[in-house]
């Protein structure tokens, strides 16, 4: 965590338990403040964040907290029941109590796991989220969806548990590998299509600036995406309806992630998923050609994939049957009927889905063990 530069920007999530997402550089004082009246703090973090976690632990100790570090396995390996079990054991050993705090430090996998551990420990303790990837900042750390992966599928076990604060320190992006910035851009672009088309204009005007982790454009894209998410989760935390729109591109995306045993980056899979639903929407007569084509165009500008293995459709269809949005066995897709006009397509004709899949995947062979991004 570095010295503070400009004044941080704040986005308020007006849910039943409102909280603030603070976006800035050098947010250590805010992280400490967010631990409030806790006595003990457990920092759950991924291996590349070890030094940052230790700096945070020492700063917390200097401020009078008893602070502990819990390192978890990297990426999707951390979103596992055995890892949650390890964390519960450690929380028991250190005596983390009801008024204490868990900090989730890292990418979306770390904030999902830390949120899940906090939600389940003593039936719910405070969690402060400190996302350190673009994807974590614009999406995973905001909104209170927590979870782990199981043999049954991705994120099928989890709890809605809102953070008490989210601290987005953009200085942490300096060490994030470029492919992870690209992956995060998929969720940013998602926000552009479902709610804030200005995001798409900004990326199209200058894709290089959009990908620069040190630049002002990045801060603007993070702020806009967080605002989109805050507006949605503030109205529908538990995804009774509106929140589904944040799942744009995820029905096929999650199926691809699962088929790839989670070796594909989440954003890469979601990018292909968005191209698929855009095509499906076009074929269903719901989306105009220009907006449908804009999907692949803008995703390619930042280096995201737009198609997947031609021969994988039947397996992906099988995997999509387990999607949480389905009703009574009927597939349900979030689609858009135009820019910022999210809607649903329920039980589409399988031949239409196959045609949409062929259209985006013609000529693609990458699959089964490939690492995209
Ligand atoms: N809860 C939600 O609402 C929500 C939303 C979107 C995505 N997600 C979940 O988030 C996960 C994906 O998140 P992600 O893309 O951040 O992946 P990730 O957490 O696996 O992080 C990607 C990689 O970046 C590394 N890393 C993190 N911060 C770093 C830093 N500052 N410097 C160097 N390396 C760093 C990580 O250790 C990891 O290797 C998926 O599991 C997805 O399901 C959840
Ligand atoms: O916050 C949400 O709601 C989302 O759907 C955001 C997604 O980007 C995210 O990947 C989320 O984890 C997906 O949730 P799931 O309920 O489909 O597992
Ligand atoms: Zn996502």
Automatic annotation (TrEMBL):
Domain 3-dehydroquinate synthase C-terminal intervals: 184-326
Entry's EC annotation: 4.2.3.4
Co-factor(s): NAD(+); Co(2+); Zn(2+)
Keyword Lyase: yes
A Pfam short name: DHQS_C
Metal-binding is among the record's keywords: yes
Binding site for NAD(+): 74-79, 108-112, 132-133, 145, 154, 172-175
Catalytic reactions of this protein: 7-phospho-2-dehydro-3-deoxy-D-arabino-heptonate = 3-dehydroquinate + phosphate
Entry keywords, A to Z: Amino-acid biosynthesis, Aromatic amino acid biosynthesis, Cobalt, Cytoplasm, Lyase, Metal-binding, NAD, Nucleotide-binding, Zinc
Pathway this chain belongs to: Metabolic intermediate biosynthesis; chorismate biosynthesis; chorismate from D-erythrose 4-phosphate and phosphoenolpyruvate: step 2/7
SUPFAM superfamilies: Dehydroquinate synthase-like (SSF56796)
Record field: transmembrane: none
Superkingdom assignment: Bacteria
GO cellular component: cytoplasm
GO biological process terms held by the UniProt record: amino acid biosynthetic process; aromatic amino acid family biosynthetic process; chorismate biosynthetic process
Molecular function via GO: 3-dehydroquinate synthase activity; metal ion binding; nucleotide binding
Domain (3-dehydroquinate synthase N-terminal) ranges: 70-181
Binding site for Zn(2+): 187, 250, 266
Family per record: Belongs to the sugar phosphate cyclases superfamily. Dehydroquinate synthase family.
NCBIfam families: aroB (TIGR01357)
Functional description taken from the UniProt entry: Catalyzes the conversion of 3-deoxy-D-arabino-heptulosonate 7-phosphate (DAHP) to dehydroquinate (DHQ).
HAMAP family recorded: DHQ_synthase
Protein name: 3-dehydroquinate synthase
Source organism (scientific name): Dietzia timorensis
Gene: aroB
């Amino acid at each position: 965590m570095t010295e503070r530069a400009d004044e941080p920007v704040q986005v308020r999530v007006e849910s039943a338990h409102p909280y603030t997402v603070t976006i800035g550089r050098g947010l250590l004082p805010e992280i400490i403040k967010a631990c409030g009246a806790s006595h003990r703090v457990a920092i759950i973090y991924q291996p590349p964040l070890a030094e940052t976690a230790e700096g945070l632990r020492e700063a917390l100790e200097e401020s009078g907290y008893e602070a502990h570090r819990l390192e978890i396995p990297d990426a999707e390996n951390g979103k596992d029941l055995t890892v949650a079990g390890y964390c519960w054991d450690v929380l028991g050993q250190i005596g983390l109590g009801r008024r204490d705090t868990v900090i989730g430090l890292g990418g979306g996998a770390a904030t999902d796991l830390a949120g899940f551990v906090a939600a389940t420990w003593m039936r719910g303790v405070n969690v402060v989220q400190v996302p350190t990837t673009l994807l974590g900042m614009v999406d995973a750390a905001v909104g209170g969806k927590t979870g782990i992966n199981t043999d049954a599928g991705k994120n099928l076990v989890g709890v809605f548990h809102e953070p008490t604060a989210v601290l987005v320190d953009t200085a942490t992006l300096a060490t994030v590998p470029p492919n992870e910035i690209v992956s995060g851009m998929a969720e940013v672009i998602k926000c552009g299509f479902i709610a804030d088309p200005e995001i798409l204009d900004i990326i199209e005007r200058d894709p290089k600036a959009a990908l620069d982790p040190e630049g002002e454009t990045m801060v603007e894209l993070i702020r806009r995406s967080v605002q989109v998410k805050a507006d949605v989760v503030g109205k529908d935390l538990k995804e009774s309806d509106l929140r589904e729109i944040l799942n744009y591109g995820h029905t096929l995306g999650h199926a691809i992630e699962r088929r790839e045993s989670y070796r594909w980056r989440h954003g890469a899979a979601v990018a292909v998923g968005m191209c698929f639903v855009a095509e499906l929407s076009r074929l269903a007569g719901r989306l105009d050609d220009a907006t449908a084509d804009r999907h692949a165009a803008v995703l390619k500008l930042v280096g995201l994939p737009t198609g997947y293995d031609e021969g994988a459709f039947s397996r992906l269809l099988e995997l999509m049957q387990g999607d949480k949005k389905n009703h009574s066995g009927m597939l349900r897709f979030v689609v858009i009927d135009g820019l910022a006009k999210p809607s649903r397509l329920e039980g589409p004709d399988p031949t239409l889905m196959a045609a949409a899949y062929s259209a985006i995947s013609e000529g693609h062979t990458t699959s089964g063990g490939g690492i995209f991004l």
